[in-house]
Structure formats: C-alpha cells, structure tokens
Amino acid sequence: MKLYDVSVLISDELPVWPGDPGISVKRTSSLDRGDNANVTQINMGVHTGTHIDAPFHFEPDGKTIEQLPIETLVGPCHVVEMLDVKESIGLSELEKLDLEGVVRILFKTRNSQFWERGEKQFQRDFVHISEQGAKFLLEQDVKLVGIDYLSIERFDSLDHATHHLLLRNQVIIIEGLNLSGVAMGEYELIALPLKLKGTDGAPARVVLKKICP
Ligand SMILES: [Zn+2]
User: Fold this and answer.
1) pLDDT per residue over 22-62, tens digit each?
2) The pTM is what?
3) Which phi and psi (to 5°) does residue 128 adopt?
4) Residue 163 is among the residues annotated as catalytic for this protein
5) Residue 209, SS3 per DSSP
6) Rounded-to-integer distance, Cα 196 and Cα 55, Å
7) Which residues have their alpha-adjacent CB atom under 5 A from ion ligand 1?
C-alpha cells in the first residue's frame, strides 16, 4: 500500500489569497526560554493551504464545514492530469474523459509546480475550472472536485459562477492540493477537514492511497 500526502506544508511562507488573513505560527511558550513546554499558537484563515470549501462559503444558507458528509470525503477517487491546459478546464477538456461512475475527481495541472517550486508570492494565473466545466461535472454527478491551487475559479471572477454551481449542488471543493508527486489514475481519497463549528471551510490533511490493480 502506498500513501501520497497531497497537502501543502503550512508556514508563514505559504502564499494566501489576496485579502485573506495571513498565516502566523508563534511559539507562545518555549522550552528554550525556560518554560515547561513548547506551545504554539496559529493564526490563519480557514482557506489556508490545502483546504475544503463548505457551501456556506458562497451560499448564505449553505452547509458549514462540520456538516459535510465524511462519506464523500473518503473513497475512490480519479486523478486526472491536464498539464498542458494554460488557463481553464472547460467543456473541451472534460468531454474527452471517461467519467462514468466517477464520484471524486482531482485535477493535476501546471499549478502543482507552484508548490514544487516553493513560490512564496500568490500566483494569479492559475489553471481553474470554467462555469461550463462546472456544469459538465454536475451533469456527470460528481460529488467532490479538487484542484491544485488556492481557488477552483478564475482569479478575477466577479460572479463566482463555478463556486456557486458546485456548492449550491452540494459538490465538495478541495483547493490547494499539491499533486506533483502523483500520477493520473485511481486512488482512495482521504480528505479530512478540521472539525470547526459553523465555518465556511477548513484546512485539511489530504492523502491518496494507491489502489493496486
Ligand atoms: Zn476556499
């Protein structure tokens, strides 16, 4: 059994979405300073690094993170490589795929290289899923979609159509994955967000387990 950790490392060097809270990791009690234990305080937004969006992120009456079904967050998962897509994943990219019976799908794009290269600046030109792409995924009855940068939607979107379409229809979104170490294929997904009360998202440790043929 081979496990792949597809989560990014959280530190104050990790880029965050412009306008979101920054990341601070501070040792408030320290053995080095003579305290009786090391204790660290973290301060960050819930959409930090590898994280899951709950419907409440964009829908006023949407489910919050602790209400998401863990049955969807764990299970068979399809990893698709779209390394030559420059901008957006839309109908023409998705129609080529065989999505018969696919419930969970993760898109590996050139975005994963941002994490591999250790980019500290937020990258605006990330590959995203278009509104048409989101519609198509809904029609295929996909229940979970993951992408390898901090949003599934184009940076300067005004209507947030991709988020609305997916979240309104109870499709779980994972953002900020680093898929550079995994090849396309079939895996078992384990994506567990922190159990925060009433929030619009939460950081998650996401792991893929290779299903041996
Ligand atoms: Zn998010």
Assistant:
1) 999 999 999 999 999 999 999 999 999 999 999 999 999 99
2) 0.97
3) -135, 180
4) no
5) strand
6) 14
7) 47, 53, 175, 201
